[in-house]
Amino acid sequence: MNPSQNKTPLYEALLNFKEKNSYSFHVPGHKFGTVFSESGKELFQSILEVDATEITGLDDLHAAKGVIKEAQELASQFFESDDTYFLVNGTTSGILAAVMSVCRPGEKVIVQRNCHKSILHGLELAGAQPVFLMPDYEEDTGRYSGVTAKIINEALKQHSDASAVFLTYPDYFGRVFDMKEVCEVVHNYQVPVVVDEAHGVHFKLGPPFPPSSIDLGGDLIIQSAHKMAPAMTMASFLHVKGEKIDQSRLNYYLQIFQSSSPSYPLMASLDLARHYLASFSQADKSNLLTYIDGLRKVWSEASRYWDLLPGGYSDDPLKLTLEVRAGLSGFQVAEILEDHHLYPELATEKQVLLTIGLAPTIHLHKLHERLEEVNCQLKKQPKNATISVDQPQFPKFQTLDIDYAEMSLKSAKFVEWSYVANRICAEAIVPYPPGIPLILKGERVSKEQVTSVKSLLRQGASFQNVHVERGIWVF
Ligand SMILES: Cc1ncc(COP(=O)(O)O)c(C=O)c1O
């Protein structure tokens, strides 16, 4: 490890400040925890003591010159980017700023269809003309996942006026694709690659984790440090590599999409998460891998109601996928796991996704005991004939049926499901998690999409569209 990576300048500045016992005549109103509801005081106290604001010595995220700049530079050094920015409003804010900085109104962009809704929100704000690219379907997992250099090349050949390409790497389940080859193709067309690497902040740790797109040709890469590294929720990194990104535009939009009162505990947690990753030793890695082997054994031997998909199925060893056997749905299994205080990351019709941290946290024999209880409950569960919902078919390349500019002039109306087919959707229909839209805003809804949403609802999937049980908004 580079010795400078031992430093945590922002965190240390906060600690030094705390020790000075200063009197606060500034915001925030909790005055370092002295004014606070008694109900939460004990639990919140230690964090409130470092919940500072932009006072002398603590720098300013929006004009970083001191300890925040230093902490960002250390992150950039560790991730081997050209510049790294701290984000306090999640990867969501980084994606919004990224889309706005590479895309002007009316410009065409190539977007992997299985993208997070924040990319779609960014495209709508930018008034872009997206060309959605359907990823390859994987028979063995029943999911659409990565893209190939061939399909990207085809897309760019047909749409050579595109100004950027947006990719998601890895997918929620830890699946990656040949990003290096894809970036080489995109760069032949002189356009930047923006990568939503929300689930890959730990890839910089090296094998057996897949490589990070920072090292594979990505130009602008956004990572949720809070998802797979030990950082506080909403803490993310945005990295720039190379010359293709206009950083003055990027900076401008980061100011728009980020709070003017960024949280110091969040920013310090980024400083500490980078330090954690930089200090991760070979011994830590082998300890983690032994633990993962143990976890895999417990989960795979625990139940005859699921199969643990083999290691090679997910390229990220921190993601484990249970494939639920016939008669049950992933939603049912997840519900029963939760009854026993085992909380998975997400469930789909047939799968349950488990996410592991970077160090052992669970006693394997206790987990085994709990899974036996889960088994007993699953045994009593009525089994249904598995309803396999056909995945709606999407074209290889798809544009919206009406563009964002036109949509902004139209009024939407709410219709019940029986009247939805063939109408243009006025909202993205998003099962959550993973937050990836099944129907896009501006897309003509097919009968298969209607069947698919209704079936997911019947099986217990959650949607962020609160009214979705009854119908949706259409143009
Ligand atoms: C693929 C992907 N991209 C982006 C995001 C948004 O990240 P954040 O929660 O850090 O805003 C998520 C969140 O679940 C995600 O799964």
Describe this structure in words.
37% of the residues lie in helices and 13% in strands. By secondary structure, the protein is α/β, with parallel strands linked by helices. It has 4 domains: 101 residues, no CATH class; 170 residues, Type I PLP-dependent aspartate aminotransferase-like (Major domain) (Aspartate Aminotransferase, domain 2); 99 residues, Aspartate Aminotransferase, domain 1; 75 residues, Molybdopterin biosynthesis moea protein, domain 2, CATH 3.90.105.10. Strands 1-9-8-7-6-2-3-14 form an 8-stranded mixed beta sheet, with helices on both faces. Strands 10-11-13-12 form a 4-stranded antiparallel beta sheet. It has a two-stranded antiparallel sheet with strand order 4-5. β6, α7 and β7 form a beta-alpha-beta unit. The model has no long low-confidence stretch (mean pLDDT 94). The structure holds pyridoxal-5'-phosphate. Pyridoxal-5'-phosphate binds next to α4.
